[in-house]
Design goal:
It contains five helices and eight strands. Strand 6 and strand 7 (105-108) form a beta hairpin. Helix content is 23%, strand content 30%. The strands form two sheets. It has a six-stranded mixed beta sheet, sandwiched between helices. The model is unreliable at 1-9 (pLDDT under 50). It is α/β, with parallel strands linked by helices.
């Protein structure tokens, strides 16, 4: 899969809403609450394969700084790879942080020394005071896996994690 723009549009969500709903073929847009704050992710289920059936591998794709799961779905090539091979592709979205060096807001994954790179006093609107900050992105990933495991035939021995730039560092 390449970083170039895919010629296919991302298309509308086949399902949308909170975790706990069945997945359908195509783009499934979900929200899960982690530490009292809603987190967004997309699960791409191959279009021409039954939602039930044999166990499938799962690939998590973590975007780079300033990106989103929606953008990474469009540019990564993993949607096409899922259609070709039958894997389930997951595209989470990181939270926005105020970066100290630039003063800009940027989506980031909590990897390595993120706490030294961002303003720890600025949180997203509605982010609970008692919740971990920087956010618990491992807990976010675990929550996604629980929902996938409860609603899709996934092979827990074939779960892969990859990413671009800051997403690769988190992976």
């Amino acid at each position: 899969p390449s970083q170039r723009e895919s010629p296919l549009p991302a298309g509308p969500c086949a399902t949308k809403g909170a975790v706990g709903k069945p997945y359908r073929n195509g783009i499934n847009c979900r929200v899960v609450e982690v530490d009292g704050h809603p987190r967004r992710f997309i699960v791409y289920v191959p279009r021409h394969r039954p939602v039930t059936g044999p166990l499938r591998p799962v690939v998590f794709m973590f975007h780079g700084s300033t990106g989103t799961g929606e953008q990474f779905l469009r540019v990564s090539g993993w949607r096409e790879q899922a259609d070709a091979t039958g894997l389930v592709a997951v595209f989470p979205t990181g939270l926005r942080y105020r970066v100290l060096d630039s003063g800009r807001l940027s989506t980031k994954w909590n990897s390595f020394d993120l706490a030294q790179e961002v303003d720890l006093d600025e949180r997203p609107r509605g982010y609970p005071d008692g919740a971990p900050w920087p956010a618990d992105d491992v807990g976010f990933t675990d929550s996604i896996m629980r929902d996938l495991g409860a609603r899709l035939p996934i092979d827990r021995r074939r779960v892969y994690v990859s990413g671009f730039s800051n997403g690769a560092g988190f992976a």
